[in-house]
Amino acid sequence: MRRLAVLSVLLALAVGCSVEPESDSGAAAQGPAVEWKLVTTWPKNLPALGTAPERLSEMLDTMSAGRFKIKVYAAGELVPAFEVFDAVAGGTAEIGHGAAYYWRGKMPIAAMFTTAPFGMNAQEMNGWLRFGGGMELWRELYEPFGVLPMATGNSGAQMAGWFNKEINSLADIQGLKMRIPGLGGAVFSRAGGVAETMPGSEIFTALQTGVIDATEWIGPYNDLAFGLQEIARYYYYPGWHEPSATLEAIVNIEAFEALSPDLQAMLEVACTAVNQEVLDEFTARNATALKVLVEEHGIEIRPLPDDVLNRFAELSNEVLEEEAQGDELAQRVLDSYRSFLADMREYHAISEQAYINARSEVEAAL
Question: What percent of the chain stands above pLDDT 90?
Fold first, then answer.
């Protein structure tokens, strides 16, 4: 009986020791619930762009079993579109969603983390950010503002834009007022145009009332949703100014560091997932939307003249050099970007580009 009693006590202790750590571990994993505010530069429910923050919020809610909740505010609901960066840096909101070229007034070189004229496509941009040193430079650039960037969407190659008159030569660019932000806008102005920056919500009215003569937005999917086909006839390509456009989630660093390690990991994984999902959506939907624009709305799709593209390319190099001049970090960003792009050009000449060329030639011969 004594032996049975001792065994019973030892068994109880063993069970207690094994159960107690599991209980503590479970409690630690749960932790307190987190509620964040997300401000964005996009109109509410805008396909792909406006819905990307909503997807991010839904993913984190599911992944965390309700522990990480984010309330999304569209442009103007909590702060104006172009005040998102300041709102996150100042702690008004813990997270924002937008594009780095909107903060060019604070950090001119920041625009390159969205896109650069005649620069990387989406595939190349993602490669540079994740495996080419781009993300480290991006975070170094934002760190003094107390903000942490994460790639959270990409439009892929865009269209050159909507015009109310034909563009037959570089002369037609002179004095033309166009909504075109970032480095592309700087190039457009230097070529003789007048670049305007305005949030997406203002574009339709500005083009309709003649405040601007032309606008770039994104591509067929979003442009159709905006109704731009109702007020402009000519739709030009290629999107020389935005061969891709990386969207960003910007996170207040103090808020991020206050998260438990598992929620930090969930946030980064969710941003990576949304980054790819947005690109996939644009890839699929743009093709369908283009057919609608042409077949149902009679939109004329036209290439920009060679002299226009050649001049834009020349000026792009000048603008990029000036953006980095006198700034050691900006120069490192530009050097890293150019080095990676040079490698991609060399490799894609015998891979992606070679295949696309071969496919086109074969299709033409059939």
Answer: 89
